[in-house]
Amino acid sequence: MTAVADPPTGRSAKPPSDDGRSAEEVASDKRRGRVGMFLILPGFVFLLLFFAAPVVVLLAMSLYARPPGAEVGEFVPALEFGNYVTVISAYWEALLRSFVFAGIATVAALLIGYPMAYLVAVRLRNRRLLSGILLVLLIAPFFSSFILRTQAWKQILADEGVVVEVLRAVSILPPDGRLTATAFAVVCGLTYNFLPFMTLPIYASLERLDIRLLEASGDLYASPWTTFRKVTLPLSAPGVFAGTLLTFIPASGDFVNAALLGNNRDTTMIGQVIDSRFFRVVDYPGASALSFILMVAILILVLIYIRRFGTKELF
C-alpha cells in the first residue's frame, strides 16, 4: 500500500536542540535568562557605584603624594607605593592588636551566643510565648544606638562602679586596679555589641533542626554530649560559620569601643588610627593605605577561614 503523507500544517517543524529540548523550550529559557539579568541589574549597579567605585578611589588615593611645600591636606596624584611601607612600619602593632581583639571577641560571642540560641530555638521550641520574648531580647540591643551601648559599658566598668568595687573587695583587682582603659574593657564592648550578629545566624540554623534526630540519638543510647557533638553542632555549622564571619569582620575595623573603653596606647585599634589619619592629621594617602591594607588583610583571613573551615568540614 502507498503511504499517505500527512497534510501540511502551515508551519515548518523546528528541530530539537542538542540536549533534546524543543526550540520553544530553548526560547523560553532564554527569555527567563534575560528577565533574570534585568532583575539583578539594579543590585549589580548598586554594588558597582557604592562598593567597587569607592574601593578604586581609595586605592588611587592611597598612592597620592604630598608635593614639597604643600599645605596640610594638599596632595597630588602619583604612584607613591612608599605610603604602604610607611604606614605598615608605623602601625603594624595596632593592626595586629585589632585582629587579636576581634578574634577573642568572636570566640567569646560564640561561647555566649550558642547556648542562648540553643535555648530559644531548641529547648523552648514548644513554648512559643517564652521563646518569642527571649528572641526579642536577643535583638533588643539593635533598638539603641551603638555609641550609647558602648557608653553604657563605660559606666558599668567605671572605677567607681559596682563591678570594680566588688572585684576589689574579693581581691581580684588590686585597690588601685581598674577595668576601663584596658584590653579587657575593649573586648567586653566588642563582644556585647556584636553578640547579636553571632546569635541570630546560629538561631536560624537551630530553628530548622529536626528534634526527632535528637530523640533518635537518645534512643541509640548516645549521651547528651555525644548528641550535641555528633548531631546538633554539625547541623548548626552553617550558622556558626556565618556568625563568626559577621562578628569578626566588623569587629576588626571597629574604633568606637577602643576609643570609649580603651583610648590609650595599649588598646589602640586600627580603626582609631584610620579615623585619626583622616580627620585629625589630614593624611588622606596614609589613611587610605591603612584602609586598603585592613580590607585586604580581612579578605585574606576570611578566605583562609573559608578554605580551612568550610561549612561541610567545620566540625
TrEMBL record:
Please list where the region (Disordered) is annotated: 1-27
Report whether Transferase shows up as a keyword of the record. Answer: no
Q: Which Pfam family, any one, appears in the UniProt record?
A: BPD_transp_1
- Does this entry carry the keyword DNA damage? no
Per UniProt, the keywords (alphabetical) are: Cell membrane, Membrane, Transmembrane, Transmembrane helix, Transport
Q: Which PROSITE patterns match?
A: ABC_TM1 (PS50928)
Its primary localisation, in coarse terms, equals membrane
* Annotated Basic and acidic residues bias: 16-27
Query: Which parts of the chain span the membrane according to its record?
Result: 38-65, 99-122, 129-148, 183-204, 231-251, 286-306
Q: Which InterPro entries match?
A: MetI-like (IPR000515), MetI-like_sf (IPR035906)
> Topologically, how does it sit relative to the membrane?
Multi-pass membrane protein
The chain positions of domain ABC transmembrane type-1 read 95-305
Q: Where in the cell is it found?
A: Cell membrane
Q: Into which family does the record put it? A: Belongs to the binding-protein-dependent transport system permease family. CysTW subfamily.
Write down what this protein is called: ABC transporter permease
The record lists the organism as Arthrobacter halodurans
